[in-house]
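I have been asked to look over a protein record a colleague put together. What it holds is a sequence and that sequence's fold in token form. Please read both lines and tell me whether the tokens look consistent with the sequence. I do not need a full report, just your reasoning and any doubts. This is what I was given:
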Amino acid sequence: MKPRPARTSATKQKLFDAALRLVGERGAAGVTVDEIAAEAGVAKGTVYYNFGSKDALVDALLRHGVELLAARLRSAEDVDDTGEALETLVDGALGFFAEYPAFAQLLVSEMWRTPGQWHGTLSLLRDDIVAIVRQVVQRRADVGALPPDVPVGTASAALFGTLLVVALDWQVFQPQRTQHEVRESVIMLVRGVSER
């Protein structure tokens, strides 16, 4: 008998959430399949059934998280005003990292680990996210809101890096700040660069 898609999806989400909590606390290398299964409230075999191995689970975790983040960022593509689109992009990223703070920790720790076990996966995923950011930044450049000597690709990578590190700093060192306060700080920084 085949598992029902809704049930399989719910189980994968439970495993995703459990793995994210544990990996965010201790890093991917410091977590076992037994711990992930226990945290998710499922049998160890469920992890292997759904993913095959811990490495495959972490790979899927990274992909799933980036898909969720990308969906939030893509909402900026539907906003006509380029300034509002940029704000929507910032809101989407900060909202995602507020909901999944451990994912920001995972991205930061694994993205710059050299050479990281998931470097190939992360490189592709990073490119996907930066491409979304680049579309919004390019639109700003097209209306003259970005200094002409600032390359769009560099500005896009810088904005993504800023959002990732600011979100992590907020969650770890300044949790008393509201998302609105953090958002306004990022928007003021971005406006300062674009108005020079």
Q: What stands out?
A: The first helix runs from residue 5 to 26. The CA atoms of residues 70 and 129 lie 6 Å apart. The chain is about 75% helix and 0% strand. The radius of gyration is 18 Å.
